[in-house]
């Protein structure tokens, strides 16, 4: 019956993080051509949704406006928080700038505390390396208790690993 075939809703994956860390670049890498951009209801803030896949599993990806914390100040932050709390994504990809890890990790902890399944994407590794920064992703992963994926989304680095991790997190 069609109703049964359609009853399995596609998983929702939300990309969140500070402004300007590469969320939209990652969103574009993960999604294909079928992307919808709309104003979040009652606001002028734009939210993009698209479909991505890992192996043959398809999932919906939403690109959220930049947020610094779960305690919103700006309209963008209010939208991102509302989206997270109301849509309760199956997985949250927290994108951070590897050059500014310390400043950005508090949001990772807030997301974990809020009960979300979180994957940390350490983006801009190309720039971090140019600055001579060396980050022990395994140690960070062990301390946080969530998957950590080093990436340079602009150059496509880390995307395949992230797809694998997302696939695993969504139940394979
Ligand atoms: N060097 C480098 N630049 C990157 C990387 N990823 C993204 N960028 C650049 O960072 C800038 C911001 O990228 P966006 O994807 O627009 O960032 P965003 O997080 O969506 O920003 P907001 O939507 O404003 O919150 C752009 O100029 C990108 O080209 C990366 O891995 N390495
Ligand atoms: Mg963006």
List the helices and strands and how they pair.
Blueprint: H1 2-5, E1 11-16, H2 23-30, E2 35-39, E3 46-54, E4 57-63, H3 75-87, E5 91-97, H4 101-113, E6 118-123, H5 125-130, H6 137-144, E7 148-150, H7 159-169
Parallel strand pairs: 1-4, 1-5, 5-6, 6-7
Antiparallel strand pairs: 2-3, 3-4
The structure holds guanosine-5'-triphosphate and magnesium ion.
What does it look like?
There is one protein chain. The chain is of the alpha/beta class. It has one domain (about 5-170): P-loop containing nucleotide triphosphate hydrolases (Rossmann fold, 3-Layer(aba) Sandwich), CATH 3.40.50. The protein contains 7 helices and 7 strands. A 7-stranded mixed sheet has the order 2-3-4-1-5-6-7, sandwiched between helices. A hairpin with a 2-residue loop joins β3 and β4 (about 55-65). The radius of gyration is 16 Å and the shape is globular. It starts with a helix and ends with a helix. It binds guanosine-5'-triphosphate and magnesium ion. Magnesium ion binds near residues 23, 24 and 63.
